């Protein structure tokens, strides 16, 4: 990708802009002593650059599937900070990359409803293998409770997701917690967020 691209020419998510401050408030509370965080599914990179800038004590490692890396890295280059690492390739269904230091936190936003169920299962297995004991897993996105949508907008969003990819969809929180428990992760907090989303904090 040409390095002359400007921020205005890169993919942009308004949702990232809308939710980054509420998420940051809780990351600041939950990760005061975090050293090395892996972000899974960094997408446009807006979260990566914003959180790295506001959490300078954390070595922030963005990642995504290969086809997203050029645009992701272009944004990281344009909005670099000392603790923001170059993006790495990570496909949850493939062997995960070997990182040079222990990962004591993992963050992922708006990914589990995009993934297939098989990918969600692989996500938790990978997290369980990589995250150190007493480490944090923080997940942002929409979830169902007792098999029910929390809003009409989430129901419509789910229909749109499954129209584009029948393997995707908003996941039941009970299933997510079951997958987490199989990897030694316990749900500590489940916080309501803007636009009918949640922020989940698990501890290993």
UniProtKB/TrEMBL annotation:
Ranges in coiled-coil conformation: none
- InterPro entries for the chain: DUF938 (IPR010342), SAM-dependent_MTases_sf (IPR029063)
For this entry, the protein name equals: DUF938 domain-containing protein
């Amino acid at each position: 990708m040409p390095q002359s691209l400007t921020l205005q020419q890169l993919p942009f998510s308004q949702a990232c802009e809308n939710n980054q401050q509420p998420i940051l408030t809780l990351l600041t509370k939950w990760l005061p002593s975090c050293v090395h965080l892996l972000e899974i599914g960094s997408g446009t990179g807006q979260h990566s650059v914003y959180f790295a800038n506001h959490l300078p004590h954390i070595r922030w490692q963005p990642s995504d599937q290969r086809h997203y890396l050029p645009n992701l890295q272009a944004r990281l280059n344009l909005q670099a900070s000392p603790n923001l690492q170059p993006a790495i390739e990570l496909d949850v269904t493939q062997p995960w990359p070997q990182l040079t230091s222990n990962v004591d936190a993992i963050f992922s936003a708006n990914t589990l409803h995009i993934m297939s169920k098989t990918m969600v299962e692989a996500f938790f297995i990978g997290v369980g293998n990589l995250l150190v004991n007493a480490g944090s897993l923080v997940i942002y996105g929409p979830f169902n409770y007792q098999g029910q949508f929390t809003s009409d907008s989430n129901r419509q969003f789910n229909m749109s997701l499954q129209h584009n990819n029948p393997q995707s969809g908003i996941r039941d929180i009970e299933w997510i917690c079951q997958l987490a428990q199989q990897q030694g992760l316990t749900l500590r907090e489940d916080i309501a967020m803007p636009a009918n989303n949640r922020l989940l904090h698990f501890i290993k």
